[in-house]
Amino acid sequence: MRRSVLPLATLVLVASPLRAQQPMSAEDELMALLNTPVTVASQKALTTREAPGIISLIPREEILASGAKDLLDVLRLVPGFDFASDIQGVVGPAVRGNWAFEGKLLLLVDGQELNETRYGTTQFGTHVPVDHIQRVEVIRGPGSAMYGGFAELAVVNVVTRDGVNLMGATGAVTLATTAQGHALRQLSAGYGTVSGRTTWSLTATVGDGNRSEQPWNSFGQVRQLKDQSGLRTGFFNLGLKHGDFSFRAIHDAYEVDDFTFYRNEAAVSPMRFRGTYLDARADLTLSSTLRVVPRVTFKQQQPWYYPDGLEGGKKETERTTVGAQLIWDPSPAWSVVMGADAWKDSGKAPLSQAWSNGGTQVSYQNRALYTQALWNAPFALLTLGARYDHNSQFGSSFVPRFALTKAWSVFHLKLLASKAFRAPAIENFELNPQVEPEKTTALEVEFGAQLGRAFVSVNLFDIAIRNPIVYQYDSVTDAESYFNYPKTGSRGFEVDLQLRGDWGFLHSSLTVSQANDNQVPDFVVPGEKAYLVGLPNLKATLLASFRLGERWSFAPSFVALGQRFTFESEGGPVRREAVALLNAVVHGELPGLKLKLSFGVHNLTGADVGFPKAYQGTDGDTYPSQPRQVFLRAGYRF
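Now predict its structure.
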């Protein structure tokens, strides 16, 4: 029987306090990182080398070293991830060359789904603060077989610091400024502790920033974005665990200034993305081989919400979910997960903004069954799973997955094949009751090797998206809708390299992709069949940290993007040259104090990275990003 490397990871984690006087070698540090248990791809703790997915793990050490101000900065360093703009001043993600904004990337914070259910979107920029993140786990590929219809292309699981990690009170302040004024002001505080069988934590972050301070042109109208592209955040997270019971409450008060001329030509319009998320569950041991996890979750959201209520901007949504998961480990070689979920999505609106049924409320129901079996066979770890969803509006979806992973000595191999789907959200149905789920097929292969203090992995991917759901607007009739188009997708490869030494660490990546039989007209770049609008086919990243004595370090980083083809006010395609975002950060700890400092420069060269539209329709030019910024972060442990 093949022996799992997970016990080695557990041994490293348990033994580390005993080795406090004997620091791990660089090679051991790298092995411990590679063998960190993650659950994002399987619901069962497996190392990143064994997990049935292409996994990126970003530990707190790398997050802080990078000088990241928010989750967008963290994910920019992940292979295959990029960011583009939608409308109304909002920025969203792209994954492996595919626009993933509306319902294609699942964003979890401590297991809570942050995607809003009106359109399925996730919003980035001074959102999901990094001060209290312990690690970020990313599936750079489909996750629908476990997570459902918002996990078509990727899953991002943010794990925050709990009572065990905090063990007391902490506080941090982050300030960033450009030549013209402030770019970010943020204050974070947290407290956590362990008492007997009870672990709890409470963290909070408040702050404000700006998308840019550059002028933005929209068909001849120009908005000066300095102090008119605000991004405001308030993020509060309570976690409680007592014995087998756990409870989580998150309140996310995110707000974006809509600087476009969509609603107001005279001034910007604040737009809310607020959400309250509640989760209660129990992890009950029925026998030595059987556990059951019942849970109830609730989320209430105000997405795309204008307080003045104009232009349909005062709609609210809710989702209530009841579910249970059964984990059965009949032998050391077998593990089976079975689960069922039932939820109700509802939308509320004032009478002046009634839904398509003429009323102030609309609702849909969904039922789901899923299963996963892991067999630790003598020759490899085999994973076979599937999920079945039935929705009261769009009917049924069935998505299977298969994975063969093998970790031996310093090598690992992964062969992955999976189906995934994107579930239409409330407004998709509102604008077109006949819209159908997207269906994706993904084939992936990865090979990795640890060579002393270095680790390198290479993966190939082929993503085919059928029936992609695409927004359409007819300017002649002023009608909008969503339609299914035949096909889109991408294919390419990613390389990930990590080095560890007495000098520090280095983490670098390369992503090369191209369009895969795209048949969505809005994504087409005329004359450039290999490209999709607004997105690069080439991306390279690097983050390094060099030790400067015992208490100080220097961390340079860069994100380089290849050429992009965009549609601007004057039309398109417009070729945007390759660009690089360069950062440099110094970290240190003052002797005798519990104060940690980080200071440095973001975007050293003042490069115009920008956030272009990922489709041909446009509300103006590419959204500008921030120029050179000087920043300071001070963190204190009480």
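Residues 145 and 375 are 17 Å apart (CA to CA).
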